[in-house]
Amino acid sequence: MGEGQRDNQTSPREVLLLGLGNVPELQTLLLLLTVMIYSVTVVGNFLIMVLVVADQHLHTPMYFFLGSLSFLETCYSSTILPRLLASFLTGDRTISAHDYMAQLYFFGSFAATECYLLAAMSYDRYLAICQPLLCVSLMTWKVCLGMSDVSCLVGSLVSAVVTFLLSQLQFCGPQVIDHFFCDFTPLLELCCSDIMVVKLITFFLFILDIIITLASYVCIIGAILRIPSSMGRQKAFSTCSSHLTVMTVCYGTLIIVYVPLRTAPLRQLNKVFSFFYTVLTPLVTPSFTA
Fold this sequence. Notes:
The chain is built from eleven helices and three strands. It is mostly helical and 290 residues long. Strands 2-1-3 form a three-stranded mixed β-sheet.
C-alpha cells in the first residue's frame, strides 16, 4: 500500500464541518439568530434553576429534576453553540481531530445524562401516582441527589466508552462532515473499519434507557386508567405532563435523527432535526416546565 493510501486510512488530523450552509448572504442572519437563541436558552434555563432553588414551594423531587434538566440543557448548548458562533465570525470551519473528539465526548456525556435523568424522573412520577403514600418516604433529597449523580456518572461513562471506541477506528477519504457540530453518526460515514461493535453498544445503551422509561409509564398509565373519576384521572395526568412533554420531544427527535439510515436524501433532513433537539429543545424547555 502506497503512502497516499496509508494517509487515506488513518485517523484524520483535521475535519471540515460544513455547518448550516455556505450562503454568504445568510451568514449574518444565522449569526444573529444563533446569538439570540443561545442567550435566551442560557437566561431561560438559568431562571428556572434560580426559581427552583429560591422558592420553597418548589423544593420537591419533580422540580429538583426539572432544575437539573435545565442545567444539562444549558451545558450541552454551551458545548455546541459557542463553536458554531466562532465559525460564523471567523469563517474557519475546520476542527482538529482532538477537538472533535472532545466536543463529541462532552456533548454525548450531557445528552446521555439527560436521557438517564429522564428515566429517573419517570420513576419519581411512577411513585407519585402508583405509590403516593410511599413517595415522600422513598424520594428523599438524598435519593434524588443520588439518582442525579448516578445519571451523571453513567452518562459520562457511556460517552467515554463510545468516544474511546471511535478514536480506535480508521477513516478514509476526504475528512469533510456535512454537519454543524461534532456528532456521532456523521463521523461513522467516514470510517473504513468495522463499526458494528460501536453501533451495537450505543444502540443497547439507548434502548435500555428507553425500556426503563417506558416501563414506568406503562405502570403510570395503568394506574391512571384505574382511577374511577375523570377529575382524578386529569389531576394524576397533570402531575406527569411536564416530564411526558420533555420526554416525548427528546426521545422523538433522537429516534428520528439516529434510527433511520443516513442516505443522501435524508442527510439534510437529519441536520434539521439535529438542530431542533440540540438548539431549539433547550430553548423551549423552560416553557415546558413552567
